[in-house]
């Protein structure tokens, strides 16, 4: 029997297929035994279509510990340049890192690093949209990982009160100051990823005191 309406399987590269294969093995239900990856991107600007990712930084978190031996940092070659954002990320047009790689190679290495980990970012929508836009340019689907936003988690961790503005969006600096997290290497992808990981652990501790111990209860 002919299957005229069967959807044609796309011919994705091996690194994407290997990434998808990771999700055959599900994360356990407990937060403590789940691998989280705190990440941050530095970009040429804030326009999803026209701007590009300059660098990706990420650190691994598991069993309430940041693994300093499991850190990801990569820089991406590009021609797009926005002088307005230099004051934020500090990377100039003349900065040509010899270790910078193509966008596709950076994404390939990033997928290999994250696997099926739960991704954590501050104001996660921006970073994930930039990464998913890069994937789209490469003809690939969006990231499959569960994603957590530290700003949203922090709001949930606070004592319930009518005086709390649940729609407020907290900056990473605000959370670092409130939670007594040192802000070293601020506005570098790896530095911000590390700060995000520390904030995440502090917020997790608060949530656990409220009886939250399962991954599904974080989303």
TrEMBL record:
SUPFAM superfamilies: Ribonuclease H-like (SSF53098). Keywords: Exonuclease, Hydrolase, Nuclease. One of its GO terms (molecular function) is DNA binding. DNA polymerase III contains a core (composed of alpha, epsilon and theta chains) that associates with a tau subunit. This core dimerizes to form the POLIII' complex. PolIII' associates with the gamma complex (composed of gamma, delta, delta', psi and chi chains) and with the beta chain to form the complete DNA polymerase III complex. Gene3D superfamilies: Ribonuclease H-like superfamily/Ribonuclease H. DNA polymerase III is a complex, multichain enzyme responsible for most of the replicative synthesis in bacteria. The epsilon subunit contain the editing function and is a proofreading 3'-5' exonuclease. It holds the Pfam family RNase_T. This is DNA polymerase-3 subunit epsilon. Residues 35-209 form the Exonuclease domain. One of its GO terms (cellular component) is cytosol. PANTHER family: DNA POLYMERASE III SUBUNIT EPSILON, PROTEIN NEN2. GO terms for biological process: DNA replication. The keyword Hydrolase applies.
């Amino acid at each position: 029997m002919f299957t005229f309406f069967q959807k044609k399987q796309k011919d994705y590269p091996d690194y994407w297929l290997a990434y998808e294969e990771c999700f055959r093995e599900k994360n356990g239900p407990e937060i403590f035994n789940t691998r989280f990856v705190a990440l941050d991107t530095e970009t040429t600007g804030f326009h999803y279509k026209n701007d590009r990712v300059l660098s990706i930084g990420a650190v691994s978190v598991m069993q309430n510990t940041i693994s300093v031996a499991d850190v990801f940092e990569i820089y991406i070659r590009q021609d797009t340049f926005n002088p307005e954002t230099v004051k934020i990320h500090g990377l100039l047009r003349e900065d040509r890192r010899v270790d910078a790689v193509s966008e596709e190679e950076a994404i390939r290495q990033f997928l290999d690093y994250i696997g099926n980990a739960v991704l954590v970012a501050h104001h996660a929508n921006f970073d994930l949209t930039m990464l998913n836009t890069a994937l789209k340019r490469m003809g690939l689907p969006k990231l499959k990982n569960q994603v957590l936003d530290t700003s949203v988690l922090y709001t949930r961790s606070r004592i319930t009160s009518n005086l709390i503005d649940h729609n407020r969006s907290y900056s990473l600096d605000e959370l670092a100051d409130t939670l007594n997290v040192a802000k070293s290497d601020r506005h570098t992808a790896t530095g911000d990823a590390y700060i995000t990981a520390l904030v995440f652990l502090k917020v997790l501790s608060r949530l656990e005191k409220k009886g939250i111990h399962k991954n599904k209860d974080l989303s």
